[in-house]
Amino acid sequence: MSAAQGLERRARWRWPEIVFWLVAFGALLMPSGKYLILNEIAILALFALSLDLILGYAGIVSLGHAAFFGVGAYTAGLLAKHVTGDPLVGLAAAIAVATVVGFLTSFLVLRGSDLTRLMVTLGVALVLGEIANAFPRITGGADGLQGVVMGKLLGHFEFDLFGRTAYAYSLATLFVLMLLARRVVQSPFGLSLMSIRRNPLRAAALGVPVHARLIAAYTLAAAYAGAAGALLAQTTAFVSLDVFEFHRSADLLLVLIIGGAGWLYGGIAGALIYKMLQDGIATLTPQYWQFWIGLFLVVFVMVGRQRLMGGLYGLLAMARRR
């Protein structure tokens, strides 16, 4: 089998993927009441997908990925407030600005070891957050950016209180960007990223332009994170300094730990599990929900994903036999 045939085989759609997306879009037909949480899951999944592109495929660690999320959120919010409320225009502008910021900061981030990258990415997010806080007349400062008025999606669909339009918009954006990500990671470019993650010295010896590839991957991930931030700003009609906070980047790492890095659906699975756990536990114990999520993460890491999945498959097999 040639390399081209191998890539073509990997790019084929499998039935679990098709079923997943049919269920996701079919959720639009369900009664109102869960669209808001589904919209949050779709946005978090897109945000996690952006981090997976650099962590799972290129091996770039980051503690400040919220920097691009915040840039996208403020770009879309400011554009809706002062220029136009068209969601698609705001989404495109947020992606463009986040791409530029990602490209400019990539030269700083990709220098040094993993520990250096952790500190630099965290520093970039903190600096951008302080810049947003330093101009309250523009960004709203600690009070947040208010007065964001969104227009109708495609000129016909208004963002309602139930979140149905918001969920459809976020899910469609996630689906389109997922299609693009599948093409990227299952191309020669994606294979070169995986070779760099495993052994950058060997990849360079084989003629792979390591630095250029990492810059391209980091810039693409920044664009995806900017899109996620824009979706949050547009579907909530509000932006605060919280979009730059460290906890967003930390939660994103937790999502990838749960779902698994290095496969595109890991971020989606992690976002779904994390948000459902957060919503369910917070309903049962509003004061101690963080304790139970922390306990779950500790058990999850100690037991391991493979053992948990093996136990789940064992239970399913027993149920079928009975």
Give structural notes.
By secondary structure, this protein is an all-alpha fold. The chain folds into two domains: 3-284, ABC transporter involved in vitamin B12 uptake, BtuC; 287-322. The chain is built from 15 helices and no strands.
Defining traits:
single chain; 2 domains; globular; ABC transporter involved in vitamin B12 uptake, BtuC; 0% strand; mainly alpha; 322 residues
How are the SSEs ordered, and which strands pair?
Layout: H1 3-10, H2 15-26, H3 35-55, H4 66-82, H5 87-109, H6 114-134, H7 136-139, H8 164-185, H9 188-198, H10 200-205, H11 210-236, H12 246-259, H13 265-284, H14 289-303, H15 305-321
CATH architecture of the largest domain: Orthogonal Bundle
By secondary-structure content and strand pairing, the structural class works out as mainly alpha
Mean pLDDT: 82
* Helix content class: over 70%
In the predicted model, the low-confidence regions spanning at least 5 consecutive residues are: none
Number of structural units classed as domains? 2
CATH uppermost class of the largest domain: Mainly Alpha
SSE succession: HHHHHHHHHHHHHHH
Total count of helical runs of at least 4 residues: 15
User: How many angstroms separate the termini?
Assistant: 42 Å
Total number of strands: 0
CATH topology of the largest domain: ABC transporter involved in vitamin B12 uptake, BtuC
Radius of gyration: 20 Å
Largest sheet: none
Global geometry:
globular
Oligomer: single chain
Beta-strand portion reads under 5%
